[in-house]
Amino acid sequence: MHLPNLWNFKNYKVRTYVIFSLTLLLMLLPFITMAQDATGASTGTIKDLGIDTLAATSDTALNKVVNAVNSIGAADGHNKISINIMWTLICGFLVMFMQAGFALVETGFTQKKNVAHTMGMNFLVYALGMIGFWICGFAFMFGGALNAVTLGGAPGVVPHEYVIHLFGKDFGIIGSVGFFLNSKVYDVGVFTLFLFQMVFMDTTATIPTGSMAERWSFKSFMIFGLFISMFVYPLYGNWVWGGGWLAQLGINFGLGHGHVDFAGSSVVHLVGGVAALAGAIIIGPRIGKYGKNGEVNTIPGHNIPMALLGTFILALGWFGFNPGSTLAGGDLRIAVVAVNTMMAGTAGCLSALLFMYAKGQKPDPGMLCNGLLAGLVAITAPCAFVNSIASVIIGAVAGVLVIVVYNYIDRKLKIDDPVGAFAVHGANGAWGCIALGLFADGSYGDGWNGVAGTVKGLFYGDGKQLVAELIGVGTCFLFVFPVMYFFFKLSNKITPIRVKPEDEVAGLDMPEMGVVGYVD
């Protein structure tokens, strides 16, 4: 029996069905739309100042005063939320520009014959990540916490978190509101949060493009870009930032304020670093990296100035990354956060320099870049909770740690990571969270994760905060590594994860991308 081709829109029945379905959808759209505050005109009221609207009285003169106070209060409330939204958006734009920094760093550290391929991955992951996060990642991550007060509260949005009940406690697992940024979350506060968190997610997604560079199939990379943005990053992010079970360790078990990560040492960098490690193990080393007798061969990058420029761009973007995580331009702690960010990054760079000199080596510019980035990664979690002295210590440790970890992975474990992605983001993402559990000085964070009082680390009297940080770091390893390891194994069955040996030797630009990065 002949069946009609359902994909052929020239077919009369199919065409009629499609037109009817679209028409019905357009007719129903006004009825299913539940716009909260899509224009922003009603966002920010007198209640955002911590006071309620004054009630009218029988006194006419007094009513005029009441109305004037209500009007001024409403305007002030609107302005407060407007400042917070504008601040968060501008910081999000800065974080988006970090994608250019990553592209330049990774491309500069790799070979000339793979320029278009490495740049192409860093470019496309922005689009892939955004679509994946829009489809379901954002809903999974923040669906249970879509009423951030600093962004207007989104009072009409009803969040929902799936929880499991153990030991008489509730453990948040995953959100379920906000798929496709649908009409139920059509609100300026929610959309602001989406933009800011989307560019954070994209930072995570781009980290493995460095560890697997110069041999990763572009088709396999595209599958990865969707998978990590839709599932892996959002799940762990929900547990820490979406009100999930790691954030609830303080409320449920008295472990400080739960797992605290101000701007993403664990949520962004550790997740990306662990995924990068799993990918580098599965894909294997580049041809010629390791000799038959165990020797380690250096495969130099083709453009160190490009990598240095990319590092400066990343350092600039970090001023959106860390201070922007207040989600509030009116939170003047942003000044402390910004300075701590600078101090840790520069301390990481200088400690890497001194460590190389102490080892009798010359100041490798690549390692200076990684030292700076390591310091920035490490300060990302504790930046709002520590003083400048602690920031320098945290950054200095990171600058040494990145070299030690990179050399161990490269020379002892024989895992080929061309840009040191795990050493920079994985090892120092973990160190940043541990550092918070040690150095948080109790000057900030009152009420964080619903726990009264400020955030304090071990050195300031709360060893339980360190325990919460260690649990969060351990959970990230135990969740992300096996999931990504088996994902890469499975995706290899769908399309080969690694390019053909002859293509790798010749360069991936023409075989994978169809163009060369440098015409000459």
Describe the structure.
This protein has a single domain, classed as Ammonium transporter AmtB like domains (Ammonium transporter fold, Orthogonal Bundle), CATH 1.10.3430. Strands 1-2 form a two-stranded antiparallel ribbon. 52% of the residues are buried. It is mostly helical and 520 residues long. The protein contains 16 helices and 2 strands. It has helices at 12-32, 60-108, 115-142, 188-206, 208-211, 218-241, 249-253, 265-283, 304-321, 334-358, 365-379, 388-412, 421-439, 463-494, 501-506, 509-513, and strands spanning 161-166, 169-175. The longest helix is centred in the first third of the chain and has 49 residues, at 60-108. Mean pLDDT is 92; it is low at 1-7 and 27-33. Helix content is 60%, strand content 2%.
Secondary structure topology:
Layout: H1 12-32, H2 60-108, H3 115-142, E1 161-166, E2 169-175, H4 188-206, H5 208-211, H6 218-241, H7 249-253, H8 265-283, H9 304-321, H10 334-358, H11 365-379, H12 388-412, H13 421-439, H14 463-494, H15 501-506, H16 509-513
Antiparallel strand pairs: 1-2
Helix pairs in contact: 2-3, 2-4, 2-9, 3-4, 3-6, 4-6, 4-8, 6-8, 6-14, 8-13, 8-14, 9-11, 10-11, 10-12, 11-12, 11-13, 12-13, 13-14
